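Forwarding the complex inputs:
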Amino acid sequence: MNKFFVILSHTYTNRIKSRAFIITTLLTIAAILVMANIQTIMDTFQEEGSGESTTAIIAEEPVASALSSSITGGELYEGGEEEAKKAVLEGEYDGLLVVEEGENGLPEGHYYMDQFTSSSGAEVRQALQQVKATIAAEEQEISGEALSVISSPVSFETTALEEGAKSEEELNQARVIVYIMLFVMYLAVVMYGNIIATEVTTEKSSRVMEILISSVSPVTQMFAKITGVALVGVTQIGLFILAGFLGITFADDTEGSLIQMAGLSNPDWGVISYAVLFFLLGYFLYATLAAMLGSLVSRVEDAQQIVTPMMMLVIAAFFLAISALSTPEATYIIIASYIPFFTPFVMFTRMGVGDVALWETLVSLGLLVGTIFLLGIIGARIYRGGVLMYSSASLLKNVKEAMQLSKKE
Amino acid sequence: MLKLENVTKKFGDFAAVDHLSLEIPAKQMFGFLGANGAGKTTTFRMILGLMDQTEGDISWNDGEIGYEQSHLIGYLPEERGLYPKLKVEDQLVYLAKLRGMSKQEAVPEINRWLERFKVPEYRTKKVEELSKGNQQKIQFISAVLHKPKLLILDEPFSGLDPVNVGMLKEAVVELKEAGTSIVFSSHRMEHVEELCESLCIMHKGKPVVHGGLKEIKRSFGKQKVRIEAEFDVGFLRDKEEVLHYKETSEGAICQVKEDKDAEELFEALQGRGFVRQFVLEEPSLEDIFIEKVGESYE
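Prediction (whole assembly, two chains):
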């Protein structure tokens, strides 16, 4: 047990002190701080920019005055149409609205801009629509009150009948939190999985492994390494969370900001504690797999290649979880949430945004824990044989050979 | 005492070690000889428990060797390797900790050994900056730092210059005198002849010769007579006492069964002229190996 901690602390301190670790951590913290303050940053740029958009309007009265008051930045243009177009091209105005009287006496508009953007003239169009409605109403002799009754939005509310169902707002908040958690989990599994596989392979390729396994059992080594890297992960993610927390605290927390929208200022601790549980289990599942795979190759270059199938699994799990965000009750999602390799992602998502019975959670957790143990046992055996093996045959052949090396016949 | 009984290791159909029975006495130096692929490393790995034998028993002082005894065992693998990016001292401390030493115990020992191998300046250097020979010294230190009772050295002298070989040999002899049982493999016969009380020659997984060095030579039943004479000694070829005749530039080397036969030859040479040399030589391990295996060794 003592040696377990020797290896664990060796793995941990070496990683923490490594340049790669320090650089990635600092960069990510910087990114988190930027993200948390994105609202403030965006506002700053908005003010410093060209200011509000301006639209030149060429129209006859009374349409002209109605438009110039309802379009923000609208300005009557005194001059010819060609001149106005030139002014738009030169950047003096953002757009040009030319209104002419159509056949039935209603205004028809033509909007010119230097190039299409996503919001091309939407506001202008709405203003013109309103002016048209007013004119049309006058012509049809409809009173102003009648018009406002017609055009006022219908009252519409949604209520979920099932008890404990999340409200629309809660659901949106949950989605954001689940999404962030999924992303962190995905990154962590990919990153730390790779680190473990590379660590094992590095020890093999530098041939220090044979000394190591003559002092400490390979099984102890494997789990000490997995735990050591897990602690590295805890440290790193802890720093990230701290940065995120600080970022949120100091960020502009006013109504309608991104953070408010995501519900991050008032997080759902239930979802977060599930996230931690599934995160740890998911990590141990994939870490064991990575250590096992890493022990099968003998060169660091091959380590990346051999973990590829595992990464595919992680990616599949991630995308299943993303689609579960919108359709948590789909059959394929429910099935996937019981497959141990997908459970940490998919079951967690279902719990976050859907309604999952307790027995469902327990069954999937049971399967997951069982698989971790099974993989631990098989992995330890493959590891034991694999670390003595220096051939470069195919994956399956290597697995077979490793099992053979580690067993009594 | 390290005891191997009928140990066999099969990889598929291939027997890397085939019914090997050995007794390695305590506090001695035991030599393992054999060409590449003779099964030396596999035997060591089985002794250390890195691999399980297919058949047979291995015991040390009547118990099995497991990780509980790892602080009593030192191992220098044939494939040398250390962490390339770690400093020599950190590396040795880590490996010593894995053998059950504390850092406080390890550091003075590390300094003592580095001094002894005349490389104290490498203490704070990274391993990858060291030459291969010096890396090997560091690795040797890692095998003996914790004062093991059983030391297994797989080809300890390969790749070293004569000065370093001498330094290492000295250290090994000292360890033996301090009470460590040492098993080492080599493909250089002369190292084994020089250092070991007993030995085993492996060939294709089988022990060809096994026992004390003196007994092996004595029981070999053949002796070498080196003759240098001023006249042609070719007539000796037809003597029935001569088992094997080999001409040399100055005379011949004859193999005979026992001392009495040598006397016969001595008689036969009388009166023919001046004999510059007539030496009765012990058989070398090389001779024994060639005789037993029927082919040259290296």
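Chain B is about 30% helix and 30% strand.
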